[in-house]
Amino acid sequence: MAKKNKNEEEAPAAGGGGWITTYADMITLLMCFFVIMYSASEPSQSKWEQLKGGIESDLINVENPTPLADLYEILEAKYDDPEYDDPDITIDFDTRGIVISLGSHALFSSGGATLGRDGRLIAEEIKDELKFHSERYALVIDVEGHTDDVPIHSSMFPSNWELSSSRAASVVRIFTEGDISEKVVRAVGHADSYPLVPNRDSVTGIPIYENMATNRRVDVIIHY
Q: CA neighbours within 13 Å on the CB side: how many for 139?
């Protein structure tokens, strides 16, 4: 009988054990796939709680309106009443909260920041409406002064920044004198940075005086 070559006896069969490595890799990949599929089909407890909380929150908002929504309805019913009919006071509800816009010419003399008689009455009236709600529901009141784009250069107000800030502060002073906590009221001056409408014609640059009057205002913003 022919004698086998020693090298032939020791040489491994073609392919050797390499297929085992490939098979193990395939099994590992399959396991990862099934783990991912299972995780996707089984929401985590935290995700479920978030979803549940969101649904409950929506139901609460529908069934129990927020204090801010209640206050808006009260103010809207008053200031949008045809019998009241004051064009110098407008009210809106946007992403900032409740926004009460007061025309500056109803509050101040031209170029001034001292509340006139009518302006003081308006500020006190709004203060009375806000006092109860701000205390009970921990609301924050931002008072923002705005001007048109005509520069002012006076000894008291070197620019519209000082004028708008002083006008906002005058309204805040009325609020805090009426026992609204100083901790929840803030005065801010924006000069002509945030016009509601264009101050001038975009082509000719001619002033639009009606728009300028609209932009001269004090906004009272109520939010959490």
A: 26
Same domain for 178 and 113, yes or no, is: yes
Residue 93's domain spans which residues? 66-223
Residue 143 and residue 33 share a domain: no
Q: What global pTM score does this model have?
A: 0.70
**HSE on the CB side for 147, CA within 13 Å?**
26
**Hey, what are 155's tokens?**
């000894």
Least confident of 16-20, 156-160, 176-180, 217-221: 16-20
pLDDT digits (tens, 9 = 90+) for 25-63: 676 777 766 656 655 655 555 654 555 455 444 443 444
Does 48 map to a domain?
yes
Query: Which ranges of 64-116 would DSSP assign to H, the alpha helix?
Result: 67-79, 104-107
Number of domains comprising the chain: 2
**One domain, residues 83 and 158:** yes
CA–CA separation, 37 and 42 (whole Å): 9
